[in-house]
Amino acid sequence: MKIRKLHPTTETPPMDLLLEADPSITKIESYLRHGSSFIAEIDNHISGIYVLLPTSSDIVEVINISVREADQGKGIGRKLIHHAIEQARAQGYTCLEVGTGNSSIDQIAFYQKCGFRMIAIDYDFFLRNYERPIFENGIQCRDMIRFRYNL
After folding, report:
1. Which pTM does this prediction carry?
2. β-strands 135-136, 139-140: how paired?
3. Which residues contact 59 (CB under 8 A, 6 or more apart)?
């Protein structure tokens, strides 16, 4: 597997993957314009993607990360996160952040296993920012759980 930067002028981002992590095409298109996208490839097949978006001079956020369902459970997500940590360090950031929904039980555990610490809850984030209700694991996604990795 190799991870490389997606070239936005010559390559089309895998919207199907991005939509798995964020149901808003409008939001995805916005952060694709301002962020940097990196893809994981296995035998010229895109198996995962993440997008880094600067939020301040010191902080960059993994604003979207997704691995194809058929490729999940193979450590690709962990490799993408470690790559994001390396990229953030190389670009001089002091913190890498990520947010996920209160209903994203597996992701909450995943980020903590990767060394992220929970720093905040943005109450009603998904109610304020998405037109339609989102449900995962039988739970309505209402709040954004924020995590930080100090570099």
Report:
1. 0.94
2. antiparallel
3. 93, 94, 95, 96, 97
Q: What's at 2, amino acid-wise?
A: K
| Residue 117, both tokens | 């610490």
Nearest to 128 by CA among 88, 98, 101: 101
85: left (phi over 0), alpha (psi -120 to 50) or beta: alpha
At residue 125, what is the residue type? F
Q: What pLDDT digit, counting tens, does each position of 45-67 carry?
A: 999 999 999 999 999 999 999 99
Q: Would you state the structure tokens that stand for residue 139, as one six-digit string?
A: 């739970």
* Closest of 53, 46, 61 to residue 16, by C-alpha: 46
